[in-house]
Amino acid sequence: MSQKLRQHLETIIDLTDEEFDYILSHFTYRKFLKNQYVIQEGDYVKYDYFVLSGLLKSWQIDDKGSIHIVLFATENWWISDPEAFHYQTKATLNIDCFEDSETLFISQENREKLCAEMQKMQYFFRKKTTAGYVASQKRILSLISFNAKQRYEYFTQQYPDLLQRVPKTLIASYLGITRETLSRLISLQP
Question: In the beta sheet, which residues pair with residue 78?
């Protein structure tokens, strides 16, 4: 399992065995079962999770009871409530497992310690944070400027494996469209 983290880190930084062992010592392994919460709205958020296997989703329920999917996280993705994690405040998002999942997680304290001690890790987390920011910006822009068909096509290009792993109701929620609209878009595909 630790090899997955090492491979992930080494897409951005080079590590010696000693450096990786030291980094790994700051993480904790945890397995979650399908439908188990990782974070619940209102909880203090202490950890950022690296997904080794499985599928998690972050979401929120609005005042009308509608579920809004913020993010799906599969293997080699990071997931948390970023605001609550970085500011050590209560979560505004829920994160639960859509499949049995295995994670490595790191506390804010350990992450800051690694970044202070190892320029490589500071660089790694800066690159990952920037990539996350760019992805969020693209998602926001797609929600405000793409029509439903364009959003669906973009989703299928970016995350083709999720189409088989996630129910259409949740994909529709992620895209900000109704289940009926999604069904119609799928039926139009060649």
Answer: 50
Give the full edge-to-edge strand order of the sheet including 27-32: 27-32, 101-107, 47-53, 78-79
Question: Which tens digit of pLDDT belongs to each residue from 145-159?
Answer: 999 999 999 999 989
pTM value > 0.90: yes
pLDDT band (50, 70, 90) for residue 190: low
Length of the chain: 190
3-state SS, the chain, equals: CHHHHHHHHCCCCCCCHHHHHHHHCCEEEEEECCCCEEECCCCECCEEEEEEECCEEEEEECCCCCEEEEEEECCCCEECCHHHHHHCCECCCEEEECCCEEEEEEEHHHHHHHHHHCHHHHHHHHHHHHHHHHHHHHHHHHHHHCCHHHHHHHHHHHCCCHHHHCCHHHHHHHHCCCHHHHHHHHHHCC
Give 173-186 pLDDT, tens digit per residue. Answer: 999 998 899 888 88
- The rounded distance, in Å, linking the Cα atoms of 187 and 183 is 6
Write down the CATH number for the domain with range 2-118: 2.60.120.10
